[in-house]
Design a protein that fits this description.
The structure holds 2 protein chains of 2 kinds. Chain A is mainly alpha-helical. Chain A has 18 helices and 2 strands. Classes of the chains: A mainly alpha, B mainly alpha. Chain B: It comes from Zhenhengia yiwuensis.
Amino acid sequence: MAKTNAGIIEQEEVFLGEPLDRKARLRKTCRKALTQWQFYLMLLLPLIYVIVFSYIPMGGIVMAFKDYSVSKGIWGSDWVGFKHFIQFLSSPSSLDVIWNTLALGVYSLIAGFPIPILLAIALNEVGNQKFKKVVQMVTYAPYFISTVVMVGLIMQVTDMRTGIINNILQLFGQDPINFLGDPDLFPSLYVWSGIWQTAGYSAIIYLAALAGVSKELQEAAIVDGASRLKRIWHIDLPAIRPQIIILLIFNVGSIMSIGFEKVYLMQNSMNMSKSEVIATFVYKIGLVNADYSFSTAVGLFNSVVGFILLISVNWLAKKFSDTSIW
Amino acid sequence: MKTSNKLIKESKADKAFIIGNYIILAFVLVIVLYPIIYVVSASFSSPQAVIGGEVWLFPVEPTLMGYEAVFKNNQILVGFKNSFIYMICGTFINLIMTMLCAYPLSRKELVGRNVITGIFVFTMYFSGGLVPTYMLIQKLGLLNTRWAMIIPAAMSVWNMIIARTYLQNTIPDTLYEAAEIDGCSPIGFFCKVVMPLSKPILAVLVLYYGVAHWNTYFSAMIYLNNQDLFPLQLILRNILIMNNIDPTMMQDVEAMLQKQGLVDLLKYSVIVVASVPVLCIYPFVQKYFVKGVMIGALKG
């Protein structure tokens, strides 16, 4: 009897006093949090780290709306509103920079996105395990080559006099090509060297998902007389669909964030018309010319556009499929 | 049952598909492998052979001249030393920070877990940008110190999320409850149970952080001015990309430097020497490397 009474009273409390209940719950949570002080102690250092090195620089973004001068400091400098953004978007040379960034990003996406999927499917169809292991091992390896060495490698193999690619071209009676000196060849050189370096690594995720495809499904399809191509189309591809969508979201979201490191190293005065992208532009105005405000504004423009892209692609993915990153 | 499947013969189309598949993969293998073999072979060839375009697959007139030049170059040796310092200290700090952060966030009962995770994850998608970060490093007095290579990269949120996902999936709640009943504090549990159970994820983290420290040049380029602090990658940039080889650094072979061939040879040798430390450990850690990618894929 006592037990049931207590139960009824508790229920009544829930119905009657909602604000009281919320307060009580808050107090209970606080008490629980206090007992977890050791967890918060552990989190202290990492939290200080992100606050100092990620959030404090975000405060520096106000510079984009000011005319920063060293003597007045960030907060004392004069507000100028959107002046730097207008200046950036109205100059023809910056439009070239935006266009180059987009062109490289879209080219990387279109050429670079399907290849790891095809590679994973091809590897998955290989019956000879030794051959499969060798191909995997070799195709992952270039991922570990540093950007500097990678660009050095590109320069050596495409060298006009001694590079192996031009030697091969000459073998077939072609004239040597100055790959790094031709602005029109720059996007292809950038994108395909990137594919050479990362396709194997990017295939790992798909390979892992393909390894999880149910054997029974495959066997049933074999019994039904489905050809290999049909099995790939109807069984393998649907199995890796979530991975494809998630990576597509990330890849589209990063179209605008073409990395600084490789482009900067591949740049020279001859290919500059196609190789200047937002990241390298931001570096040159900001740290070379010391125009802090303008550089911050261009950088902010880039991250905001990139962030909007990511959110919209994620929204589209959520709408048309059941997979999204958040 | 298993044999019965094999009894069903592959159709002609399937046979063609299999053969085509092998041919394509063999082609991929050659395309990836050939430049690597070529560079290694060129680095062992004579300068004349390199400049004359005689190297195709195997070293021509084998010599160690290129490597001699590399190891007589003071800059490269200093770069090696610095890179090792940055890699070892940096990775050590990375591991401590990452685990300290990943473990509490892996506990479902942590009050405010989602908010705190959000604070970390947001920084993956949005940052202050180049100039504000540079000004911060300047204000903190880290410019032109070794710390500039270590502290700003003390933790990667992406790697932390991988570690958190691993801990969530491998350490059962019952283990934690049992330890709590035995009077073990969260920090004690972390040191005595979590760390020993995390060896696979620690290997993944060492690999990712270690390679990142070894390969980076950007932060060194913007934060460091003093040549004595330069990591190897920055020295390599000077040699490979900007063609700045300090002739006084190569006393013995100075006369030969006049020959462009030796410069080219030096470049090939330097590419090999700089990649060897990473590529040497690669076969041993490949297992962990693949594991890391897969844990990361679980939680996009």
